[in-house]
Specification:
The strands form 7 sheets. This protein has a 4-stranded antiparallel sheet with strand order 1-25-24-23. Strands 2-3-4-5 form a 4-stranded antiparallel sheet, with no helix packed on it. Strands 6-7-8-9 form a 4-stranded antiparallel sheet, with no helix packed on it. By secondary structure, it is mainly beta. The two termini are about 35 Å apart. Helices cover about 15% and strands about 45% of the residues. The chain is built from 5 helices and 26 strands. The longest helix has 25 residues.
């Protein structure tokens, strides 16, 4: 991970946990990061253009209502319920100690920004509009997903204890893949036909200790390529069957973390252990990142022993390629373009603060130059007029694709919050 450099660091007044880091993605493509400490403090990280032409990080505390004194934040999550404007929901779960009775737990849902008055994202306004729901259990992860059809409730029975982490993915709006891990080490995946509301397959395995995270992914780092004639078909990368397959990475607090390959077709039969992941205390988090910018994702895991470990898939196995030491235990990871420069940053939440790590800009420039040379080798460079025609053609094609996608999604395709307990 030598090509990932520390750019900024922000101290927290108190520690967070594995659930207190989330991204906010606006409809214009701008990303922001919302994170919190346990002691009622929530912060927003964003980047602003400065007069000197440089991007400046800005951290501001957001004062959310209905978080009483003495309460602690357990988890948070954010999603946009609209595809054409910034109409966000922010969910925060809290626990309030009560010496006379059982601890009180709540799910606070913040929304109702007046888009007619102020169509731009205003976190401060959203933070003042709260629906507080009294819970009769202690929540863990807060997660949002989509309901594609009104009565789609087919899932295998889960007679286990507390969920630690939950992840859902969809294939072509007709198949739902669900993975979850529990405090007891139980880990389960299921594949559901959402059209017929039937369970196609379900698989279970057991880990020693708690499962700290499950994450579904493809090997290929997908990018929507523009349909420009200046890029010939021979340069367009065609995804292989292995790259299209859905895999799941499972991190464990006591034993080797593992990746199960092609779970839709193979279930949990193809297991690749992440060798060395059990040597650095408990693994608390993971994320998927194209660290070397080769178009394929690598797995980064964070440990309580303050280590970042990066694994790459080569020769049908996941190999430890590099590691990096930080000063405090690592609790959560995000890989998101928060600076708006087209390159994603690695966001690392530790016990003491938030790291923003960036790709080495010199290496990025060299990589871009080499790829442009490969693309335009022995090919005619486009004229300005041709570029304009191609841009208009691409925009028309995107409009047609958007209309097609909207037609394939039913009227019940709205995100909802899901809490793990």
């Amino acid at each position: 991970m030598d090509n990932i450099l520390d750019a900024h660091y922000f101290l927290l007044p108190s520690q967070g946990n594995i659930y207190t880091l989330s991204k906010i993605t606006q409809t214009n493509g701008v990303n922001k990061v919302l994170f919190s400490s346990l002691k009622r403090k929530l912060f927003l990280l964003e980047y602003h253009d400065h007069l000197d032409g440089c991007l400046k990080p800005v951290i501001k505390e957001i004062l959310f209502t209905y978080i009483p004194n003495g309460a602690e934040i357990i988890s948070l999550d954010v999603f946009n319920k609209s595809t054409v404007c910034d109409d966000f929901f922010i969910g925060i779960t809290i626990i309030k100690p009560n010496p006379d009775h059982n601890n009180e737990t709540y799910l606070n849902i913040y929304s109702e920004q007046d888009l007619d008055v102020n169509p731009e994202l205003n976190i401060e306004s959203i933070a003042q509009n709260c629906l507080s729901i009294d819970l009769n259990f202690v929540p863990y992860q807060l997660y949002h997903t989509q309901i594609l059809r009104q009565f789609d409730d087919a899932e295998p029975r889960r007679e286990t204890n507390s969920f630690i982490y939950y992840n859902i993915d969809y294939q072509f709006y007709s198949r739902r893949i669900t993975a979850f891990g529990c405090e007891c080490g139980h880990m389960q995946i299921s594949v559901v036909d959402t059209v017929q509301s039937t369970i196609l397959s379900s698989h279970v395995t057991q880990f020693e200790g708690s499962v700290s995270r499950v994450q579904l992914f493809n090997l290929c780092n997908y990018v929507n390529l523009p349909a420009l004639d200046l890029i010939s078909d021979k340069h367009r990368k065609q995804e292989t069957k292995d790259e299209m397959a859905i895999n799941v990475v499972v991190t464990s607090t006591l034993q080797l973390s593992a990746v199960f390959m092609d779970i839709v077709n193979q279930g949990l039969n193809v297991r690749c252990n992440l060798e060395g992941s059990d040597k650095y205390d408990s693994v608390l988090c993971s994320c998927l990142a194209d660290v070397d910018m080769d178009g394929e994702v690598e797995i980064i895991i964070g440990t309580y022993a303050q280590e970042l470990l990066m694994y790459k898939y080569e020769a049908d196995k996941w190999e430890l390629k590099s590691r990096r030491s930080l000063e405090l235990p690592i609790q959560s990871l995000l890989y998101v373009d928060v600076t708006g420069d087209g390159m994603r940053e690695l966001i690392v939440l530790t016990l003491g603060g938030l790291h923003v790590m960036q790709h080495n800009q010199d290496l990025v420039y060299d990589k871009l130059q080499n790829r442009l040379k490969q693309l335009f080798k022995n090919e005619e460079l486009p004229t300005v007029e041709k570029e304009k025609d191609l841009i208009e053609k691409t925009e028309d094609e995107r409009t047609d694709e958007s209309e097609t996608d909207d037609a394939n999604v039913s009227e019940y395709n709205h995100p909802i919050f899901v809490t793990g307990n």
